[in-house]
Amino acid sequence: MSKTTKGYFDLGDGQIYYETAGKGTPLVLSHAAFLDGRMFDTIWEPLAEQFRVIRYDMRGFGKSSPATGPLCRRNDLDRLLTHLDVNQAHLVGCSNGGQISLDLALEQPQRVKSLTLVGSTPSGFALHGEPPRYLMEMFAAAQSGDFNLANELQIRIWLDGQHREPDQVDPVLRKFALEMNRIPVTQNTFFISDMQPADPLDPPAIARLESVACPAWIVAGALDHSEVLRAADEMANRIPKARKTIIESTGHVPSYEQPERFVEMLMNFLGGIN
């Protein structure tokens, strides 16, 4: 078992909690916006056997400082990598974590050896059609201060998904997701820091996917929202060195639902990169 080192990085206006383990090429895990770094618990050890693996809690999540205003998430990630003396890394991002990783790869391509984007949409991607069910109700509950309801509805949107009911999802995973999501919900993280983020990538990623220089693996769950699947298609078609995998019987975060299968496929992808 690899030793895990834990620490806090002081940004001046807040702190980021992070963990590192293993040796070798750095591999950075960025979590979804309804979970935190603990979503990677089940893949942490296998990855640490092959890489110097790094995970962190974004501000407003997990053990990091609460968000106090609009944030530029890719800048936080960039500064954390500098603090950890990481010049170049494989970036693995889930949902919003993938969007942040993609933005950083476009802004600073020399820092990114590969991209793995799980259940992600590129910045600037315009959603079509009806919003995910429960989305409007979730926003209303959060804004009214009914955090228990907002937490439950957000897990219904992003873990249960459009095609499953709560009792069709692993109850252990669901309970843990509710625990992780309670922190950003009660801290109003989305409304404070991400509804109108600071310094958004300009032009956004959707306008320049052809400029992604590194190999990219686009991953989506077959049971995810149709717009996330459309985004996966667009990224796979336009990023020059991209491949795409749709994982059956999973929703928005297949790496969380099927960790062993995900690690096997991730190792296969990374093994082909010089």
Structural overview:
Helix 1 links the parallel strand 3 and strand 4. Helices cover 39% and strands 18% of the residues. The model has no long low-confidence stretch (mean pLDDT 96). The chain has 10 helices and 8 strands. It has 274 residues and is of the alpha/beta class. The chain has a single domain, classed as Alpha/Beta hydrolase fold, catalytic domain (Rossmann fold).
Q: State Rg.
A: 17 Å
The amount of helix comes to 25-40%
Range of strand content: 15-25%
Largest sheet: 8 strands, mixed
Shape: globular
Mean pLDDT figure: 96
Q: Which segments are poorly predicted (pLDDT under 50) over 5 or more consecutive residues?
A: none
* Strand numbers in spatial order across the main sheet: 1-2-4-3-5-6-7-8
CATH class: Alpha Beta
Give the secondary structure arrangement, pairings included:
Blueprint lengths: L3 E7 L4 E7 L4 E5 L10 H8 L3 E6 L15 H11 L5 E6 L1 H12 L4 E7 L16 H10 L2 H14 L10 H16 L2 H6 L21 E6 L4 H13 L3 E6 L6 H4 L1 H13 L3
Throw out a few tags for this protein.
274 residues, alpha/beta, Rossmann fold, eight-stranded mixed beta sheet
Brief description of this entry?
The protein has 274 residues and is α/β, with parallel strands linked by helices.
